[in-house]
Every structure is written in C-alpha cells, then in structure tokens.
C-alpha cells in the first residue's frame, strides 16, 4: 500500500514516522517492492538538524552526509525537511538581510513551521 501511495504522489521516497510522530527513518520506493512492513524496510536517518539550528549547520549536515534533504526535528518529533533549494533560498535571504542591515528576523521566508 505504501508503494502505491508513493507512486500516486510521484514520490521516490517517504519519511517514516512512529505512532507518536517521531522520526523512525526513511524508505525508498525501490525497497518497498520487496514487501514487508514499512518500519522494517526504513533506513536510519543520518541527515537531520534540530529546529532552530543555524542554516550553516543544516548545509554542513547535508554536505557531510551527501544528502538530498535534511530532516528537521524538535526532539525526536519530525517537523519537515530542508531541501537544497529551500536551504539555498533561506541562506540567500539571510545574506541579503545582513547586506541591507536589516535584522534577520524581519526577513520573511517559508519555514518548516509554515509547511
């Protein structure tokens, strides 16, 4: 059933959460073809940052793990992901704010909380 949902949504992977909404890992569409429980097929999530972490830290984690995305966690609770495009956008806005002398908190951008 999970593979069908991924295909229907045009996704190649999905985040796997436990019953409490805590991050369990991630699973790729290819792995789901083998059958079995999604939780058993899930890979451990290595690329993650705590909510509120600096953007540079998120970028560093993405590079360190050669990851296409980084999970954002509040404790163990999954909040969302940062993709390279969103991370680049947020970094650009941060640099622009610094260049204009505007406090970073006054620069609007989409965040995990907005998702």
Name the descriptors.
alpha+beta; elongated; 5 strands; 115 residues; two-stranded antiparallel ribbon
Structure commentary:
The protein is α+β, with helices and mostly antiparallel strands and 115 residues long. It has two domains: 1-45, no CATH class; 47-115, CBS-domain, CATH 3.10.580.10. The protein has helices at residues 2-9, 29-32, 38-41, 55-64, 84-100; strands spanning 13-17, 23-28, 48-50, 70-74, 77-82. It has a three-stranded mixed β-sheet. A two-stranded antiparallel ribbon has the order 1-2. The protein is elongated.
Indicate how many domains the architecture comprises: 2
The portion of residues forming beta strands comes to 15-25%
Compute the gyration radius: what is it?
16 Å
What is the number of helices?
A: 5
Shape, please? elongated
Average pLDDT value? 85
Ranges with pLDDT <50 over ≥5 residues?
none
CATH superfamily of the largest domain: CBS-domain
Query: Major beta sheet, specifics?
Result: 3 strands, mixed
User: Mind telling me the CATH class of the largest domain?
Assistant: Alpha Beta
Name the helix and strand elements from N-terminus to C-terminus, one letter apiece.
HEEHHEHEEH
Span between termini: 25 Å
Sheet/helix structural class? alpha+beta
- Looking at the overall shape, the CATH architecture of the largest domain is Roll
CATH fold call of the largest domain: CBS-domain
| Strand element count | 5
| Residues in helix, % | 25-40%
Strand order of the largest sheet: 3-4-5
